[in-house]
């Protein structure tokens, strides 16, 4: 087997050094590489449109200098038709160019969205425990959405306007090079001003997107079902509204600053360029009065027409430069996510198991959440074997590393020392599909989508028949309840399953896992948050699920693990005791003390909270039991 890297994900600093613009621009251009053929066609259309458009002033010159003075009606009609034809062709080329460029831009947007989503799917759990959901959503929705103008029209506008400017300048030089020099004297100043404005807007845009992400996170957290219940029962609805208003107010300020940054300077450029025709007329008149070379009326009108034709693409080109610099801030935020290191990866030549027996081994397992900074490992020297079809129970006080141990089997985390094997193969050498089919997890926190009961169950097996879904629900002791609902299996479960009680959601999760039919089952405190009556019903479903499978149970209530083939007591990341229920009781050690604690809790009616005390970035965490506030049953 290959050696395994011992790496751990750490989030990049919020204000890390900015990448150099040329490198970032090259990376942006690579996004368009798959669409080179379409972009080449756009370039041809742009070039054709630019050449056709500059022909019109030359036709006008001939009309004024030749056709009208010489009374040549036929030539006049032909030149007039030529001017109409140039307008029609320019419009047709523009429509086709817009269609193709918009299609390419939207495909690039699709590639970015899909790439970010795929990257996030591969990130370790530590990333999601350290990142607010609203921040992730904002990157995909706001940041990529904010780049739409850049990738759909800005690139084409840049090429189109640049081509138009070059073609117009060449035509102006052909008419009169002296007037052209006068027209272009201030161009370097305009370019410098636009770059300054672009840098200002880029800095403001970075702040604006961070503020939008913060506001999205506030909305996601406070307007979820849990957030609404918590806010109302704590009497914090008004303060939450005030907090949101403050976030929105900061966004208003940034939006205004972004819109007004450099606005006066860009307006000055527009004023100067609009005044250029008057300057050209003045220069031509002065040259004529001072005895310089005469400029024909047709040449002068054609030149001014070209100059005014230069005004629109030149101003647009400068504005595009500003917009591109602004968009660099958005691209940078997206590239930050695309560049996040992915620690849990599939090997280059993964092992695929056609049939999984289900033997699980922990061999000298060590795990640290922060290999460089954590003084004490969360798990250290764990050696346990669970035979195929056998059962292991892991118990211990809060913070002993129970859930962490279970998460190493499905590779929600990777060991930092030793290895975990499935049928003798290191789980890090297995392909993801084999591991997903082999290991099923039922945790304390059940997640259900805002969809029907049937759709939630089919998430485990998309091609499952109605009969298979019903059989799984029966095995999980939930079919009768579903059948009693007005819409049966078509009933919407509500946001995060809030139309169902805790026990009903747990049995739906068990039914989903039964449908998946994994040979290895991880039960992570699956009944610890339930009352005794509900626990009994869920335990029956778990017993049906566990039959014939390798089962690893993380238990808080020891009544659920008495029949396990092997019980391991964890303490501070080490195995303190191991054996059967009877053997451990006879030893009268830590396990016996835990059993006595459970007995006292049953008598007094108090139960210690199930969640482990985990540092930031670890699975689980505190749970807000909003279910105690309002009934959750349908």
UniProtKB/TrEMBL annotation:
Biological processes, Gene Ontology terms: oligopeptide export from mitochondrion
Highest taxon, organism lineage: Bacteria
A GO term from the CC aspect: plasma membrane
Chain spans, region Disordered: 1-21, 604-634
Database matches in SMART domains: AAA
InterPro entries: AAA+_ATPase, ABC1_TM_dom, ABC1_TM_sf, ABC_transporter-like_ATP-bd, ABC_transporter-like_CS, P-loop_NTPase, Type_1_exporter
Transmembrane segment boundaries: 35-55, 75-100, 149-171, 177-194, 267-288
PROSITE patterns: ABC_TM1F (PS50929), ABC_TRANSPORTER_1 (PS00211), ABC_TRANSPORTER_2 (PS50893)
Record localization: Cell inner membrane
UniProt entry keywords in alphabetical sequence: ATP-binding, Cell inner membrane, Cell membrane, Membrane, Nucleotide-binding, Transmembrane, Transmembrane helix, Transport
Segments forming domain ABC transporter: 360-597
Main location: membrane
Annotated ABC transmembrane type-1 domain residues: 40-326
Membrane topology: Multi-pass membrane protein
GO molecular function: ABC-type oligopeptide transporter activity; ATP binding; ATP hydrolysis activity
Family: Belongs to the ABC transporter superfamily. Siderophore-Fe(3+) uptake transporter (SIUT) (TC 3.A.1.21) family.
Descriptive protein name: Multidrug ABC transporter ATP-binding protein
Organism annotation: Streptomyces gardneri
